[in-house]
Design brief:
The mean pLDDT is 94. The protein is an alpha+beta fold. It is built from 17 helices and 22 strands.
């Protein structure tokens, strides 16, 4: 048994990603799609496999060299793409002794290939095409005996799966014209149309198979989702249709979130988008996975990461429910309950800082290894000036107008920092609460931005969070509670509070920059409603800090807003 895998195409519907990686090498379950196809053929006893190549052919050739079945696989390079029929004609000397498979390299399916091959042998036809019901592609008409009649019907058709078996005699029906290089360039569909008139093309119809092609970014991502979820549920591809997939509300990032359900189990899937080599997306997903598994190893309250596919950007996680810290606070509307709940969060936050810092590797970070002066100046002070002051408020003030004061702020945010592992976005929507019978457990999510830094920054993020807008009295109680837990002496307490105040300022600038950017540039206008609370917070903070008149210009600007 032999097979030709068609892998020469440009993958134009997956641009710009296919400029760097050929579509057959896009991964699913961390294995290239081409490897999935090869494995299915080997599993049914295929003894020789030929792969036609063109676009980025060296990558495919190198992949085959490293494949464990390389001894039975050959590649045939097409300097000019010959289309499907020309590719088969070009492989005639390899394929002309027995019936052979022709399979697209960009499909994932649970089609029983042995069944298809046996069906073809008994059909006495030149070609067998596997068809199924896929509304988007249903254009092939068959008769009552399953002979294919037409390849372009507007309704009541079926779709070609990209799996076919041909008999060697089919070569007798190929056109004789060729290009300048002597190679034939034509679509195999034209041959099939001629053979249909002779009742020589049969359909094997299987309407209940799992099938997906990787033609688009969306289909690639969703196939990755299906396979990762099915693997965790320990179900075969035939059961994938029984899963429920729920698209969840997103956050400020461009990631997409899904919940997959099967029987009484549920999982969360995070779609980071296609993560090309050296891209920011790849750095983020690597950080998310490595940091997440490190935190779990320290028994810290984060969701378990079950599996992932790096290239598709899909990560599958433990489902912690739908209850965010902000939602629980608003539901209960009780100062006593809020104080009790936040003390539990702070206990876990301190553990995160101390235990998470043990054996933490800076190589895991995706932005900067530490919360540094450079980061504060660029990602918080300048971000605030560019996005909030200049773009959102339309005021003609710029970063350089306040550079000396920003230097002062950055230095003092770090100077007395209680250094540990900093989450960097410790706000209520990144804290999930599992709450039952008056007992709650706290879980931190979105930790991919973690790095070494001051505990005060995460504490500031928590206490001045605009999504909750805690009362000043509760903030003060929680700040005092943190100092008591840390067992700081008098000087340590004073230094801790100084750094905390400046971290409140840098965090406020980051929040206002982010909310402005998300509202104006990303058109996520729901964040705009929180800007007034963030403005109120930054005004309170700057009044407290500027008592010694160290930042007069910035103070004047902020208080004028």
């Amino acid at each position: 048994m032999k097979a030709l895998i068609l892998a020469a195409g440009f993958g134009t519907r997956l641009l710009p990603y296919t400029k760097t990686i050929p579509k057959p090498l896009f991964t699913l379950m961390s294995k290239p799609m081409l490897e999935h196809v090869i494995q299915k053929l080997v599993d049914i006893g295929c003894e020789q496999i030929l792969i036609n190549t063109h676009h980025l052919h060296i990558q495919i050739k190198n992949f085959i060299k490293q494949n464990r079945y390389h001894d039975i696989i050959q590649t045939i390079y097409e300097p000019e793409i010959l289309e499907t029929g020309g590719a088969i004609a070009n492989a005639k000397s390899f394929l002309d002794d027995n019936p052979f498979f022709v399979i697209n390299s960009d499909i994932i399916t649970n089609i029983d290939l042995k069944k298809v091959y046996d069906f073809h042998i008994t059909s006495n036809c030149m070609a067998t095409l596997v068809l199924h019901d896929k509304a988007k592609f249903n254009k092939i008409k068959i008769d009552e005996q399953n002979y294919i009649q037409n390849f372009d019907v507007p309704i009541d058709g079926l779709a070609f799966t990209g799996v076919a078996v041909l008999s060697p005699a089919v070569f007798d029906y190929f056109p004789g014209d060729s290009n300048k290089s002597g190679k034939k360039v034509f679509s195999i569909i034209e041959v099939y149309k001629d053979l249909c008139r002779q009742h020589q093309v049969k359909a094997l119809v299987d309407k209940n198979i799992f099938w997906s092609d990787m033609g688009t970014r969306e289909s690639y991502s969703m196939t990755s989702l299906f396979l990762l979820a099915a693997s965790q549920f320990k179900i075969g591809q035939s059961k994938i249709k029984e899963m429920e997939i729920e698209h969840l509300a997103g956050d400020g990032s461009d990631r997409k979130w899904y919940r997959a359900k099967y029987d009484d189990r549920s999982l969360i899937l995070s779609d980071h988008g296609v993560c090309m080599p050296k891209s920011d997306e790849l750095l983020q997903i690597k950080a998310f996975i490595q940091i997440g598994r490190h935190l779990a190893s320290k028994k810290l309250p984060v969701p378990q990461i079950y599996d992932y596919d790096e290239l598709s950007g899909m990560v599958i996680l433990e489902d912690l429910g739908n209850l965010h810290l902000a939602d629980l606070v608003k539901e209960n509307n009780s100062d006593k309950f809020t104080l009790k709940l936040y003390k539990k969060v702070i206990d876990n936050l301190i553990d995160f800082s101390i235990k998470g810092f043990i054996e933490f590797k800076k190589e895991w970070t995706c932005q900067t290894p530490t919360y540094s002066k450079k980061l504060i100046l660029e990602k918080e002070c300048r971000y605030f000036m560019d996005e909030f002051i200049h773009n959102y408020l339309k005021l003609d003030f710029f970063f350089n107008d306040f550079s000396k004061e920003f230097d002062h702020i950055a230095d003092h945010a770090i100077k007395h920092g209680h250094i540990g592992l900093m989450h960097r976005d410790m706000q209520s929507r990144n804290i999930m609460v599992v709450y039952h019978n008056d007992i709650f457990s706290i879980n931190f999510i979105d930790f991919q931005g973690a790095r070494s830094g001051p505990l005060q920054y995460d504490l500031a993020s928590l206490l001045i969070d605009p999504y909750v807008n805690l009362k000043d009295s509760i903030r003060d109680d929680l700040l005092q509670y943190t100092i008591e837990i840390l067992k700081l002496n008098r000087e340590g307490k004073q230094n801790f509070l100084k750094s905390y105040q400046y971290c409140c300022l840098t965090r406020s600038m980051q929040i206002l920059g982010a909310f402005s950017f998300l509202s104006l540039t990303k058109k996520k206008t729901k964040f705009q409603q929180y800007i007034p609370v963030a403005v109120k917070n930054i005004k309170k903070t700057i009044i407290s800090i500027n008592k010694d008149n160290k930042i007069p210009k910035l103070s004047k600007l902020v208080l004028s807003i």
